[in-house]
Amino acid sequence: MVKLNKNYNNLKKSYLFAGIARRIKEYKEANPSADIIKLSIGDVTRPLTKTVVEALEKASKEMGAAETFRGYGDEQGYAFLQEQIKNYYKRNTGVQLESSEIFVSDGAKSDVGNFTELFDTDNTVIIPDPVYPVYVDSNIMNGRHIVYIEGNEANGFLPLPDQNTKGDIIYLCSPNNPTGAVYTKDQLKLWVDFANKQGAVILFDAAYESFITDDTLPRSIFEIEGARTCAVEFCSLSKTAGFTGTRCGYTIVPEDIMINGVSLNKMWLRRQTTKFNGTAYIIQRGAEAVFTSEGYAGCKENIKYYQENAKIIASTLDKLGIWYTGGINSPYIWLKCNMDSWEFFDLLLQKAGIAGTPGSGFGKCGDGYFRLTAFNTKEKTEEAMRRFEKLFI
Ligand code: PLP
């Protein structure tokens, strides 16, 4: 009889956001007139920009004409998009990449999850707590040993390695989901030095880099000296360009990472050419348009809109004297709720009609904290904060 992967038994019963959606649905069914404002799931609400839509339309038409139709594309992505990503890195971060180091995908989540395939299940994984649940769950699925390093108020939810830190695969997310905290260059240098010394690999999630406003903060781990020999970077157009439903991301695997004489870049190429047939041509043309000057200006306008929402939330918390991180270089605000996170979830939902995300859903160290997102409309964010203020004043 077929045997199942027993590691799945070690997962929490449901994915965090599915659990939240179910609770909101149940509350809504019991209270049909409740007007619930969702500041919970990290999904965008602004539509795709005009430049992107035009590119998608043009590419769709090409697919409908025999002379311009395209079948299977390159598994690693079309050269026209790799070139744009390469130029974007140079402009945005000063980092010089080779096209062979850029792997276009259908989003960061699948790459973050799939990349673990390249590593033995024997490896120890270092994961900051609290954290985006995908890192934890995908390693539980593979049966890897996970060591959590504590994020807390004292370290600003930006844990750093110390003499007791030991592990082989390190996940870092900056700007962080859920805390909105961002590592400085000096802090990332400590991680890079640690990884190079230990022979570890850093899996760096830069999905929110486009929200960074402070020019002194790193937008890519490759801005840090030494990162090319120890880090892989995952990036996404989901939050940068509103592609959560359109699906496109990219992963940077430097040619310089060699493990026991084996190139990680060539291993990932082998994996992708075997199990992935590329991101849709139409979508890659849409992604290409994101990186043109007109396209990126449109995306920045949407990002600004969310940043204004984050300011509305942050200024309410300032007024109420509530401790928080994030909100300036990130669409997330991580606040201290001084009670069990799920208790706070119920309180906000029932007394103010606001749905947020309990911090404990992101890890043990998240308990007592709560995540609000800046992705709703300005009007709804303002209304939610009016209700929030009334509840806590
Ligand atoms: N990485 C982080 C930290 C995220 O918060 C998210 C989405 O919420 C993703 C990756 C997923 O990105 P994508 O939509 O490209 O799969």
The beta-strand count equals 15
The CATH architecture assignment of the largest domain turns out to be 3-Layer(aba) Sandwich
Spatial strand order of the main sheet: 2-8-7-6-5-3-4
Could you list the spans in which at least 5 consecutive residues all have pLDDT below 50?
A: none
Number of domains: 2
What is the name of the CATH class of the largest domain? Answer: Alpha Beta
The rough form would be described as: globular
Q: Could you give a short account of the major beta sheet? A: 7 strands, mixed
Describe the protein's architecture and organization.
A hairpin with a 5-residue loop joins strand 11 and strand 12 (332-336). It is built from 12 helices and 15 strands. The protein has a 7-stranded mixed β-sheet with strand order 2-8-7-6-5-3-4, with helices on both faces. The longest helix has 28 residues, at 293-320. It is 40% helix and 15% strand. It has 2 domains: 7-47 and 294-392, Aspartate Aminotransferase, domain 1, CATH 3.90.1150.10; 51-62 and 70-292, Aspartate Aminotransferase, domain 2. With 393 residues, the chain is of the alpha/beta class. The protein has helices at 16-30, 50-63, 79-93, 108-115, 133-141, 185-198, 238-241, 264-275, 281-290, 293-320, 341-352, 378-392, and strands at 37-38, 102-105, 124-129, 145-150, 169-173, 201-205, 231-236, 249-252, 258-259, 262-263, 324-326, 332-336, 354-355, 357-358, 369-373. Bound molecules: pyridoxal-5'-phosphate (PLP). The site of pyridoxal-5'-phosphate has 13 residues, from helix 4.
List the helices and strands and how they pair.
Layout: H1 16-30, E1 37-38, H2 50-63, H3 79-93, E2 102-105, H4 108-115, E3 124-129, H5 133-141, E4 145-150, E5 169-173, H6 185-198, E6 201-205, E7 231-236, H7 238-241, E8 249-252, E9 258-259, E10 262-263, H8 264-275, H9 281-290, H10 293-320, E11 324-326, E12 332-336, H11 341-352, E13 354-355, E14 357-358, E15 369-373, H12 378-392
Parallel strand pairs: 1-13, 3-4, 3-5, 5-6, 6-7
Antiparallel strand pairs: 2-8, 7-8, 9-10, 11-12, 12-15, 14-15
Bound molecules: pyridoxal-5'-phosphate.
Pyridoxal-5'-phosphate binds at residues 42, 107-109, 132, 173, 177, 205, 207, 236, 238, 244, 249.
